[in-house]
Amino acid sequence: MRQSTYETGTADREKAILVSLVTDKVKRSGADPEHSLDELASLAETAGVEVVDSIMQNLEVPDKKYFVGKGKAQEIHALAEETGATTAIFDQELSGAQVRNLEETLDMKIIDRTQLILDIFAGRAKTREGILQVELAQLSYLLPRLSGQGKNLSRLGGGIGTRGPGETKLETDRRHIRDRITELKRQLDTVTATRNLHRERRRKAGVVQVALVGYTNAGKSTLLRQLTEADVLAEDKLFATLDPTSRNLILPSGKEIILTDTVGFIQNLPHDLVAAFRATLEEAGEADLLLHVVDTSSPMRERQKKVVEEVLQELGAGGTPILVVYNKIDVSSEEALSMLSGGQDTIRVSSFNDQDMLHLREAIEDRILGDVALFRIPASRGDLAALVYRVGEVIEQDTEEDLLLLTVRVNPTDMEKSGRALEPYRVVEQEA
Ligand SMILES: Nc1nc2c(ncn2[C@@H]2O[C@H](COP(=O)(O)OP(=O)(O)OP(=O)(O)O)[C@@H](O)[C@H]2O)c(=O)[nH]1
Ligand SMILES: [Mg+2]
């Protein structure tokens, strides 16, 4: 049932026309329709489809019946005849009725962005949890549209939009699908419970967890691999990673933490889809630190960064400390680099630069373990020395005439508790 069309040769690739309807709502959303269409092309490519052309239309509101205007629909039809395209992929979500009407008029398979993403997910999911989640998302997506899709999906035997539960499930009725959804949720609960148990155990053992999050293709898996020498799949494809992968990472001080890779985010990811991947992304929600990886070389980096921040908020991970990792600086323009926000919570790296990877490990260490501070305490002040021992871990101890020199890995909360008593004795060092 779960067939894949990825690895087939180019000869028999399904041909598709991309369609984007730029409504007032789309304009207001702040998304750039041109870039969104480029992204849709990458998604189609990832799903193994050959994009032969694309069409854009401006309309205040979508046409109720055909989504695009009737004239545009005819244009799509003519273009399909000319190019041999059998599929039209829409960048916006369609209703079941619109899909049915378009299928009938154009005699083409009609797919929208969400379906395409779900299709890629279906081909990528490897773990039991991932597979269950994708099927759940596909069925939840199909259910309200069921009446609109029967014909073409059952007629066409394969290709995009038919992977996973599509063909066989469509022959059954809504009731059957609802039952299956209930069953999937039950199975997911069990799987999630097991994983929570593992996670709980790790937390009890005091293991620090760091999660890589970010827009799809930002370089998360590459970073995981470069930082931990893990053998993970990194590809110039969207959604190369679907299941969370965790690896041990050894920080410069020798401390060991767990670093987790997560599924990439994308704009217009439907809310119910986010919910379906909630469990996977919960890893991110429970992390002690998030590394938000940004593809600095992308002209859409700011928008992508915003999308990720919004989804994190939705996932309830808004309060977790974040280190923004501006990645791919080796291929970023001077202009792009000059426009980046700076500051303590950001770092610029190329995944392929060893020096940068060392700096990143140090930056992670600083955030997890706190800053290193030097205190110069008069030898006579045993009370203050004792206090120093309470604000963190003393790494080095030395004396200089009648001074006690204590180098401490400061725990921010304990430091706060100590009040201002130690402030005058703290040596503020210049950054090396
Ligand atoms: N030039 C350059 N390319 C990079 C860098 N980091 C990653 N890449 C490339 O970017 C592409 C995407 O990398 P991945 O690590 O698969 O990206 P990801 O964020 O895991 O993507 P998804 O799993 O799809 O969300 C690959 O072709 C990498 O080789 C970098 O620092 N410089
Ligand atoms: Mg990845």
How would you characterize the overall build of this protein?
The protein contains 17 helices and 14 strands. Helix content is 44%, strand content 20%. The longest helix has 31 residues, at 174-204. The protein has a six-stranded mixed sheet, with helices on both faces. The protein starts with 14 loop residues before the first strand and ends in a 5-residue tail after the last strand. The chain is elongated, with a radius of gyration of 26 Å. With 432 residues, it is α/β, with parallel strands linked by helices. It folds into four domains: 15-120, GTPase HflX, N-terminal domain (Rossmann fold), CATH 3.40.50; 125-148 and 168-205; 207-368, Rossmann fold; 372-425. Helix 14 links the parallel strand 9 (322-327) and strand 10. The protein binds guanosine-5'-triphosphate and magnesium ion. The site of guanosine-5'-triphosphate (GTP) has 23 residues, from helix 10.
Summary, kept brief:
By secondary structure, the chain is of the alpha/beta class. It is built from 17 helices and 14 strands.
Helix and strand content put the structural class at alpha/beta
Low-confidence stretches: 1-9, 148-157
CATH architecture of the largest domain: 3-Layer(aba) Sandwich
* Widest sheet, order of strands: 6-7-5-8-9-10
Distance N terminus to C terminus?
A: 59 Å
Named once each, the bound ligands are:
guanosine-5'-triphosphate, magnesium ion
* SS summary, helix count: 17
- Largest beta-sheet details: 6 strands, mixed
Helix content: 40-55%
**Fold-level CATH name of the largest domain:** Rossmann fold
Principal-axes geometry comes out as elongated
Provide the number of structural domains. Answer: 4
Count of DSSP strands: 14
